[in-house]
Design goal:
The protein is an alpha/beta fold. The chain has 4 domains: about 150 residues, DNA polymerase, domain 1 (Orthogonal Bundle); about 90 residues, Beta Polymerase, domain 2 (2-Layer Sandwich), CATH 3.30.460; about 60 residues, Beta Polymerase, domain 3 (2-Layer Sandwich), CATH 3.30.210.10; about 240 residues, TIM Barrel, CATH 3.20.20.140. Helices cover about 45% and strands about 15% of the residues. α8 packs antiparallel against α9 and α20 runs parallel beside α21. The termini are far apart. It binds 2'-deoxyguanosine-5'-triphosphate (DGT) and calcium ion (2 copies).
């Protein structure tokens, strides 16, 4: 069993317990564990082998034993026993955001709903309203929830796809005949959602690669097994395609199978206008069929009169024209990144003491980090009172003396209350280095109210970064309704930054939203939202969104030196239009 499957089991247990009216703390513990497992980049089997399961956030003795049982047997007696006590249809229904146990009961008992298709049909025909507590708006919410579930089922978030791709590539790369193996398709373009995983390899013995591929432990079903091309499906339902190509057409194949389809169409058009032919084998003269390029991507693009185009930009959003004009943006790279702007410690809902978080961030090569524990209104996450928050200052200073030149900035991830007021008074905020504000409540507010709420927070002179601006949680919660253009304009006017949250189930802002925010003049800050140290490496997901947005180093706050960040933060109260 892989991480996602074990997370699914825990999440379902949460639902089953809720049906039985079990202890809310136990229910929450299972749900939180599920969420943490989903965002874990390490392989659970490997963590278990190291005996380190209990070091994971939210995993105690009991859950660690359950993970062990699932890993060892693929089953969990406790889960099977719980499942027997609750009709399967209820479990299906409650997986839809917006349907709790009470509504699921109603739908099942009164309308005998047993499948999502049936539910969708009834909601579309307005047959749900009239049940106690169900109105037109409820039907709308349920339809929206169904979309969220289906999106989550049909495509997976980038982080999960990258983890699986690496897991599959590792044993293949180890074969002596394999000279290269890389991702192609949407994974290589770092798209936020992935349909299937495409891999490309060069090998002197393609047959051996194919045989190894279709017998990997991840394989649940072999969809195709050919001489140079095979496809499999994992137990989690993910399709993986692998092709082996000749070395002298590797570059052409990589361009072709990286896509996107639209990008390929555009470069084919460009080739045709120049009397050339481009396909997965190379670039050829149309008339003589003489081969001009094929072994590397660089030479393929060069033969077409283009510079090499980073995969993240290959979406036919103008990159081919920019390439011809020599105006492709110089995308921000990991090398340019100096700090991470959103990390939790065990003072709120993080898993580790400040000291350990800082040491790990420093070890990862950063120059600074923003400590941002939750504020007191977020009780479920152990939010800090103002007095507790200010107590962190002394600890931060002592650690800074020890870790110099590494620097911990003191901040907070502060609640934006439903009416747009903030969780701490300005007198407290003025004592912090950088302040993050975030929405974690009243998600259902109408668009105008939510927009006003967030803009009001951004206009506070002491608020510097808006965390996860849309609140979307992959497969669980749709984004709240907010006018992001208004939010970006307010950020641009006041000199605040919008976050690109790299948490694997968030990726918020995503690439399109970040691109738009930059167009409107807003600065972007990439953050891991780290709760456990295994999450530090997810920074790459946020960086991918930034690169797909076409951001350069100067568009991204993280590329600034620490004193520049502090200066930027201190200037905010003095900007003319800081307060509305
Ligand atoms: P996905 O899997 O939905 O996340 O998106 P992709 O882009 O990975 O799409 P996929 O797996 O169907 O195909 C991988 C790449 O192969 C795609 O980006 C471009 C190339 N490709 C696939 N089918 C065609 C086609 O009919 N025409 C062209 N020009 N390229 C194709
Ligand atoms: Ca694909
Ligand atoms: Ca594919």
């Amino acid at each position: 069993m892989n991480n996602a499957q074990i997370a699914d089991v825990f999440e379902t247990i949460g639902h089953l317990l809720e049906f039985q009216g079990d202890n809310p703390f136990r229910i929450r513990a299972y749900r939180r564990a599920a969420l943490n497992l989903r965002t874990l980049t390490a392989d659970l089997a490997e963590v278990a082998q190291r005996g380190a399961l209990e070091e994971l956030p939210g995993i105690g003795k009991d859950l660690a034993a359950k993970i062990q049982e699932l890993l060892a047997t693929g089953r969990l007696a406790y889960f099977e026993e719980l499942s027997r006590r609750v009709p399967k249809a209820l479990v299906t229904l409650v997986s839809v955001p917006g349907i709790g146990p009470k509504k699921a009961r109603l739908l099942y008992d009164r309308l005998h709903v047993t499948s999502l298709d049936q539910l969708e049909d009834l909601a579309r025909r307005h047959k749900l309203r009239g049940l106690p507590g169900m109105e037109a708006k409820t039907e709308e919410n349920i339809l929206q929830g169904l979309q969220v579930v289906r999106q989550g089922q049909a495509r997976m978030p980038l982080g999960a796809a990258l983890a699986l791709a690496n897991e599959v590539m590792k044993p293949l790369a180890a074969l002596p005949s394999v000279r290269q193996i890389v991702t192609a398709g949407s994974v290589r373009r770092r798209q936020e959602s992935i349909g299937d995983i495409d891999l490309l390899a060069v090998s002197s013995r393609p047959g051996e690669v194919m045989d190894r591929f279709v017998t990997l432990p991840q394989v649940a079903q072999i969809l195709a097994h050919g001489r140079t091309k095979s496809s499999i499906r994992t137990a989690g339902g993910v399709q993986v395609d692998l092709r082996v190509v000749e070395p002298d057409s590797f570059g052409a194949a990589l361009v072709y199978f990286t896509g996107s389809k639209q990008h390929n169409v555009t470069i084919r058009g460009l080739a045709n206008r120049r009397g050339l032919l481009v396909n997965e084998y190379g670039v050829f003269r149309e008339k003589t069929h003489r081969r001009l390029a094929g072994a590397t991507e660089e030479e393929v693009y060069r033969a077409l009169g283009l510079p090499w185009i980073p995969p993240e930009l290959r979406e036919d959003r103008g990159e081919v024209g920019q390439g011809m004009a020599g105006t492709l943006p110089e995308l921000v790279t990991m090398d340019a990144i100096r700090g991470d702007f959103h990390l939790h410690s065990d003072w709120s809902d993080g898993a580790h003491p400040i000291e350990e978080v800082a040491a790990a961030v420093k070890r990862a090569g950063y120059e600074y980090m923003l400590l941002s524990d939750h504020s007191h209104s977020l009780k479920v996450a152990g939010g800090l009172t103002a007095a507790e928050l200010l107590k962190q200052r002394g600890i931060v200073e002592r650690l800074n003396a020890r870790l110099a030149p590494f620097r911990i900035l003191l901040g907070t991830e502060m609640e934006i209350l439903p009416d747009g007021r903030l969780d701490y008074p300005d007198t407290v905020l003025a004592k912090l280095d950088v302040v993050i504000a975030a929405v974690h409540s009243a998600f259902k507010q109408p668009r105008a109210v939510m927009t006003r709420r967030i803009v009001k927070a951004i206009r506070n002179p002491y608020v510097h970064i808006l965390a996860h601006p849309t609140g979307r949680l992959w497969g669980q919660r749709a984004p709240y309704d907010v006018d992001l253009d208004e939010v970006a304009r307010a950020a641009a006017q006041t000199g605040a930054a919008l976050e690109i949250n790299a948490y694997p189930t968030r990726m918020d802002l995503n690439d399109r939203q970040a691109r738009r925010a930059r167009e409107l003049g807003a600065l972007l800050a990439i953050s891991t939202d780290t709760h456990a140290l295994t999450q530090l490496e997810t920074f790459e997901l946020g960086l991918s969104m930034a690169r797909r947005a076409g951001l350069t180093a100067k568009d991204v706050l993280n590329t600034r030196r620490v004193h520049e960040v502090l200066k930027w933060a201190q200037q905010k109260p003095h900007r003319r239009d800081g307060r509305s």
